[in-house]
What we know:
8 helices, 10% strand
Amino acid sequence: FPPFLQKKHFLLRYYQWICLGILIFVGFAAEFLVRHGLQWLTNTWFRFMDNGERKRAEKATWRPLGLLAQALVWYGGTKLIDLPPMVLSVLFIAMKAFAVFAAVWTAFRLIDVFAHFWLRRTASTETKFDDLLVKLVSKSLKTLGICLGVVLFAQLFSLDVWGIMGGLGIGGIAVAFAAKEALGNLFGSITVLTDRPFEIGDWIITEDVEGTVESVGMRSTRIRTFYNSQVTLPNSRMTT
Length: 240
C-alpha cells in the first residue's frame, strides 16, 4: 500500500479501514447470493407450497444459511487484513458467537424443510404412525442441534468442557432423581412408538381424559377433548 494509506487513524491504518469496508460489503454480498441462489433452487426443485405465502416462507427458510455464509466470509477475511491483536480478538469473539448462532439457526431451518417434505410424503399413506415419527425425529434433531451448538460454542471460546462434564458427573445422582419423571416420559414415548396403541387422529379414553390425539412428543401427548380444549398428558401415564 502507498505511504498515505499507512497512516494510523483511530487504532487502525487507513488501508485496514478500507479493507474492513470491502470485507463488510463482500459479507453482505455473500449472504444475498446464497439466500437468493437457494431460493431459486427451491423454486425450481422443491415446490412444497402452493399458496400465496410461498415466497415469504422460502425467504424465511434460507435466511439463516445466508447469515452463516456471511459469518464465514467475515471470519476468514479478518485474518487477511493484518489487524492489531486487540482489535482482532474483539472481532473474533463477536464473529464466533454470530457464527455459532447462525449455524444452529441454519440447522433448525433445514430440519423444518426436510420435516415438511416428509410430512407431505407421509400424508399420502394410510397409517398415521409415520406422521408421528417425522415430528418426533425432527424435535430430537433440533435438541441434538442445540447440544452440538453448546459444545461448539465451548470449543471456540476454549472453555473447559471436560471440567464442566466432570462437575455434572459429581451431581449425577441428584440429576438422576430429578430427571426420573422425564426419563419415564421418554420411555413412555418409545413405548408409544413401538407398541403403537394409538395414532394421530384416533379417539382415545384414558383415566381422566377422552378426546382426539393431536400430537405425540418426547415428553407428552396432546389430546383435543370433546369440548375443544387441549389437554397435555405425560407419556409415562400413557403406558399405564
